[in-house]
Design brief:
The complex is a heterodimer. Chain A is an alpha/beta fold. Chain A has twelve helices and ten strands. A five-stranded mixed β-sheet of chain A has the order 2-1-3-10-4, with helices on both faces. In chain A, α2 links the parallel β1 and β2. In chain A, α2 packs across α10, α2 runs antiparallel to α11 and α6 crosses α12. The longest helix of chain A has 18 residues. Chain A is globular and about 60 Å long. Chain A starts with a helix and ends in a 5-residue tail after the last helix. Chain B is mostly helical. Chain B contains 22 helices and two strands. In chain B, strands 1-2 form a two-stranded antiparallel ribbon. In chain B, α10 crosses α21. The C terminus of chain B is likely disordered. The chains are: A alpha/beta, B mainly alpha. At the A-B interface, α1, α2, β2, α3 and β7 of A face α2, α3, α16, α18 and α19 of B.
């Protein structure tokens, strides 16, 4: 027992304080710490653990997931930016990286890290309660357009979160002033769908996976994907383009990044390993079992992709007054 | 019946049983180390579950969380370091009992009733899960607001003697809870420029600071009776506490039921269950405060409730995919990976698997007894180190715990600051319990209040428009008027002297 305690403490210290310098030639030469800036149990954490698992098997070195939570992801991002750039630390990052800057909470952006790869992009759907009068997305958006102050929208977490941005951009492109829509905040998308089922709000924003059980129990239903990619779990669900003839989109992407000054040769190895892990059936199965669609961007286009995401976020956040 | 037979077949395989034992071991070790929580134990197990059968994966989650929840009580009783936020409710009581040489009874009672509460929670889950899960649809932010307020109102019950001191304590807690990004959107409050505080003051380092550090300061002072402050477990852990458990059987039964129901309400977990039942047991006790029996009663009720809540939290998770607490949020993702899809049809789609989970709940709670016994023995060995070494040892445990909670040395500073705060509060006889409850519930209370105001365009009376919400509001009203009444009566009555708290 005592030995168990000590061994565990040892393992923790090891996982936290690893400094085994990796040589460019043979990355990874030792255990790699994977920083997840969100709490254990969330969507990003789950995808990160899948990826760490696949890496570990492909590369025969331990990949230890470390949750550096706090500050809505900023603490973990700072930890990644300030980590040793010797290949011993990588991190998972998400579309939040495109929005931090606009909130002025940190000056860090994707320019302060080296992007390794993108592995997932998710769009929220617009959900209504089963007994809602709205049968199609167009009916719903037209009703909101006619009287934007009438319907309550639960946006999941706080004002200007990624799902909120997806909605705001599309609503604005449809001619709605999104700042006028009564917005309800909460503890997350699952909380929002539950409020919807409890009859307390008219619309909520959630990914299909987050509403799966309530959809199957006939409490809520989705109207459209607030983006331009079909959801593989529900190919019949129209996209914003199909339902509303709106081209705008902002997706919640997830990716892997390394400290900025990582040796280009090591970075190259990371990217190759990432691409290999991404291509395995195992990774795809693990992702799809949880309702995550795999999605990637070619290496040479990552910067442009993230840059575009950042610009779209800024544009939407201006609409609701977060960015002046 | 056929389902049950199939379920038994799924459980009693070497894979599942070995998984139960291995993850129980991990759970108990992590729970016993302050700062490491049941949630972290599950996160560590997560990657391994990909290679397990669905039942084994669920077994790992169930056993690790049950063990960690109970093991969290052990450092509380021995060192006044709460192992988990849920055990903080009765840390003061079990530690005081320990100082009186009754650690074996405090721990024995805690462990036995934990197992009992856990099993009762599982039976709840088995029998009335689908019906109970419908509760979720009566709850919007309005109802949660009143429920949280009700929980918070219990604080004046847990402080012990003075209502005024408890009220001061709860407002200090609420004040501490305002630190961080504002709930509705991104404005930092009282963070002093520290990024680490954007998400609020980290809970676990703060708890370790509040409870353990003042005690360490007391231990380190050169006082003659210093040795008396060191807790050792003497006596028979279980045999000596069976009589105690029997004495509180009614309270334990009631608390287990209440704990399971609180667990079912999405978003309120074991922490809230422990605090509320603790508060109620203090309010309705017939025992004389500050006696051994009174303290044991509080430990018994709250320990039963937090383990019962574990089972309860699985109800909305299995039936509607709505996590009852952070633990079940992780469980849901594991179930999906294993091809078990939460939903009302889960009992028909995956009947044997679901019943197998129930059986494992019961099995794990039985296994809890020998596992926790071993853990107490091992921790007790630690307490045998020479007197001059014990303070540095406990301090090390605290520092490691404060660091490990977020893998961040910032946690150590939080612990130090809260240690000083705890020392000041204790010196002024301000009870720590209400501070912690205010701190834990402050943020959700604000969150629900803001969400409701957003719905009703800023009209606070909107909070009374839904029937369940109104009913809960009436409960709050009754509790408050009762307390104001007794306060006024005390003031104009005998002007009885304010009783000092703690030791």
């Amino acid at each position: 027992m005592l030995r168990g305690c000590k061994a565990l403490l040892g393992a923790i210290t090891l996982a936290v304080g690893l400094s085994g310098a990796a040589k460019a030639a043979d990355w990874p030469s030792g255990p790699v710490e994977v920083i997840v800036p969100y709490a254990a149990g969330g969507g990003t954490d789950a995808t990160a653990r899948f990826l760490a698992q696949v890496f570990q098997e492909k590369l025969n070195q331990p990949f230890n997931v470390v949750n550096r939570t706090g500050g809505g992801g900023i603490v973990g991002l700072e930890a990644l930016v300030n980590a040793k750039a010797d290949g011993s630390v990588i991190g998972v990052t998400s579309a939040d990286l495109s929005t931090f800057k606009w909130f002025g909470q940190t000056t860090l952006t994707y320019r302060d890290v080296a992007m390794v790869g993108i592995y997932n992009m998710a769009f929220p759907t617009l959900m209504v309660a089963e007994d809602s009068p709205f049968k199609t997305a167009k009916e719903a958006f037209d009703a909101i357009k006619a009287d934007p102050k009438k319907y309550k929208l639960h946006i999941g977490s706080s004002i200007g979160n990624s799902y909120h941005i997806s909605f705001v951009g599309i609503a604005a492109a449809y001619g709605i002033n999104p700042a006028e829509v009564p917005t309800v905040t909460g503890t997350g998308a699952v909380n929002g769908v539950q409020e919807l089922a409890a009859g307390a709000v008219d619309f909520s924003l959630a990914a299909l996976a987050e509403a799966d059980a309530l959809m199957r129990s006939g409490k809520v239903r989705p109207l459209l994907v607030l983006g331009q990619e079909k959801a593989s779990a529900m190919p019949d669900l129209p996209t914003a383009k199909e339902a509303l003839d709106v081209d705008w989109q902002f997706g919640v992407w997830r990716g892997v990044a390394a400290p900025k000054n990582t040796d280009p040769a090591v970075l190259e190895k990371m990217r190759t390993a990432f691409a290999e892990a991404y291509a395995t059936d195992q990774f795809k199965q693990l992702m799809s079992a949880q309702g995550f669609d795999v999605f990637t961007v070619p290496q040479d286009q990552i910067e442009a992709f993230v840059d575009k995401s950042e610009a779209a976020a800024g544009e939407a956040l201006k609409q609701i007054g977060v960015v002046k | 019946m056929e389902t049950l037979v199939a379920a038994v077949g799924l459980v009693f395989t070497s894979e599942v049983l070995l998984t139960v034992i291995a993850s129980s071991f991990l759970g108990i070790v992590m729970g016993a180390i302050p700062g490491l929580t049941a949630l972290m134990a599950l996160a560590l197990i997560l990657p391994f579950t990909f290679y397990m059968s669905p039942v084994a994966a669920a077994a790992a989650m169930v056993s690790a969380s049950a063990m960690a929840m109970t093991a969290g009580d052990i450092p509380g009783a021995l060192m006044r370091v709460p192992g988990t936020p849920a055990s903080a409710a009765y840390t003061m009581d079990s530690y005081t009992l320990g100082l009186e040489g009754k650690a074996h009874r405090a721990l024995g009672v805690g462990i036995i009733v934990s197992a009992f509460g856990g099993i009762l929670g599982a039976i709840y889950l088995m029998l009335i899960a689908p019906t109970l899960a419908e509760v979720a649809f009566y709850f919007s932010s309005d109802e949660y607001f009143w429920l949280t307020l009700l929980g918070l109102s219990c604080t004046t019950l847990i402080g012990g003697g003075s209502t005024i001191r408890s009220a001061i304590a709860v407002f200090i807690g609420l004040g501490l809870g305002t630190v961080g990004l504002s709930v509705e959107g991104g404005v930092p409050r009282f963070t002093g420029g520290y990024t680490e505080l954007l998400g609020g003051i980290p809970l676990i380092p703060a708890l370790i600071g509040l409870f353990a550090v003042p005690e360490l300061i007391k231990m380190a002072r050169p006082v003659a009776d210093n040795a008396a402050r060191i807790v050792k477990v003497k006596g028979r852990l279980f045999l000596d506490s069976i009589a105690d458990v029997w004495r509180y059987k009614r309270g334990i039964l009631a608390s287990s039921n209440l704990g399971a129901v609180i667990g079912v309400v999405p978003g309120a977990g074991s922490d809230v269950a422990a605090w509320i039942t603790y508060g109620l047991s203090r309010r309705f006790t017939k025992l004389k405060p500050e006696t051994t029996e009174w303290r044991l009663q509080g430990v018994a009720n709250a320990s039963a409730a937090n383990n019962a809540a574990l089972g309860g939290a699985w109800v909305p998770a299995l039936v509607f995919g709505i996590p009852g607490d952070t633990l079940t949020a992780l469980v849901i993702s594991v179930l999906y990976v294993q091809g078990i899809r939460p939903g009302p049809s889960i009992f028909t789609e995956s009947g044997p698997e679901v019943f197998a989970i129930f059986i494992i709940f019961i099995l794990a709670n039985i296994l809890l007894l020998p596992m926790a016994w071993m853990c107490v023995r091992a921790m007790n060995l630690l307490m045998q180190v020479p007197r001059y070494a014990i303070v540095p040892m406990i301090l090390t445990v605290c520092v490691v715990g404060a660091y490990a909670a977020d893998n961040d040395s910032f946690g150590i500073w939080v612990m130090v600051v809260f240690g000083i705060l705890g020392w000041i509060l204790e010196s002024n006889k301000i009870p720590l319990g209400p501070v912690v409850l205010g701190f834990i519930l402050g943020r959700p209370l604000e969150q629900y209040f803001v969400a409701s105001l957003q719905k009703y365009g800023g009209d606070p009376f909107g909070l009374l428009t839904r029937p369940t919400a109104t009913a809960l509001a009436v409960c709050v009203g009754i509790l408050w008027s009762f307390q104001i009444f007794s306060l006024v009566r005390n003031l104009i009555g005998t002007r009885r002297s304010i009783k000092p708290q703690g030791e």
